[in-house]
Design brief:
The chain is α/β, with parallel strands linked by helices. The protein is built from six helices and 17 strands. It is globular.
Length: 304
């Protein structure tokens, strides 16, 4: 049983701070809810989360933190105790959070040195139903992490946080879930630990295409897509943000409701399974983009 309920937010640090915030609060379609000269919090109009993306100004590009939700304070305390007993290094003890919406949580390092936060009791943000033809994100869908040791990282999230395996892409990528959604976290084999991409859920197929088309009309290059994956059955359209992080629009992610009968599958790399529609135009630099640059923040907590 998963010890976390959902993916709450992703926090990144970037050198080109103003450009990054302008991109995500502008053409990408998120809402800026709080900002000062060094940090910004961005929400999705269709999500009760206070923010789904946190952008911090820093000299190096890094993944600051991946935030997950927990059921309540007792679940947070229990998980912190279990991690300490397992020898996991805590960055902070469970306490009241000082970020928008407050809440109760703590941080720790995963096995690759990334910072993970687990929290509960964050005050929900007013949100609204995204309307037909409105091509903006409804919520955060998933985050994909590069790791040189996929098996070890997979085992960490399964054993420490209770994630369950949904599928494999050959033996290079695993898709992990903590609720019925096929994955909110995926680990892919890479040359070093880094952020692969962050994915944002759209209302439906029409809104997904409208969002992608909006970026393309404004001159943003589609590095892969539009298409539909085999694993997860979700659509994909990948772009680069101003700091060369890969961001994705997606929709129609598979849901798994029958835990007892579901069996993880192994998908191949043949075009009919990776790009089921056969429509995705793959940029020859795609692997380099998704490998990203080595994360400069491993084993180092962000200042905020």
């Amino acid at each position: 049983m998963a010890k976390v309920t959902h993916l709450r937010y992703v926090g990144i640090s970037v050198p080109a701070f103003e450009q990054e915030v302008g991109f995500y609060s502008g053409i990408w379609g998120l809402k800026l809810v709080e900002k000062d000269k060094d940090i910004a919090f961005l929400a999705a109009e269709g999500s009760p989360e206070q923010y789904i993306l946190r952008v911090r100004s820093g000299p190096d590009k890094r993944l600051d933190v991946v935030g997950f939700g927990a059921a309540d304070r007792a679940a947070v305390d229990r998980l912190a105790e279990e991690l300490v007993e397992a020898g996991v290094k805590l960055i902070s003890e469970p306490a009241r959070l000082q970020t928008p919406g407050g809440g109760y949580g703590f941080r720790f390092f995963d096995c690759d040195g990334r910072v993970v936060e687990v929290s509960s009791d964050v005050e929900p943000r007013p949100y609204r139903e995204i309307q037909p033809e409105e091509g903006i994100p409804v919520k955060l869908s998933h985050v994909v992490l590069n790791s040189p040791d996929v098996e070890r990282t997979k085992a960490f999230y399964e054993q420490m946080l209770g994630f369950r395996l949904s599928d494999w892409l050959l033996d290079i990528m695993c898709f992990l879930r903590c609720n019925p959604e096929h994955h909110c976290l995926a680990i892919i084999r890479g040359p070093y630990p880094s952020l692969n991409h962050v994915s944002f859920e759209m209302r439906g197929l029409d809104e997904f295409m409208r969002g992608a088309g909006r970026l393309m009309r404004r001159g943003y290059r589609l590095i892969w897509g539009p298409g539909r994956h085999g694993a997860g059955n979700n659509t994909f359209a990948y772009f680069l943000d101003p700091n060369a992080n890969v961001c994705e629009y997606t929709t129609e992610l598979e849901r798994i409701y029958d835990e007892e009968s579901y069996q993880p599958r192994v998908w191949s790399m043949i075009p009919e399974e990776v790009d089921r529609w056969g429509t995705a135009n793959t940029d020859p630099m795609l692997y380099n983009y998704m490998s990203n640059s080595p994360d400069r923040g491993l084993w180092t907590p962000p200042p905020i």
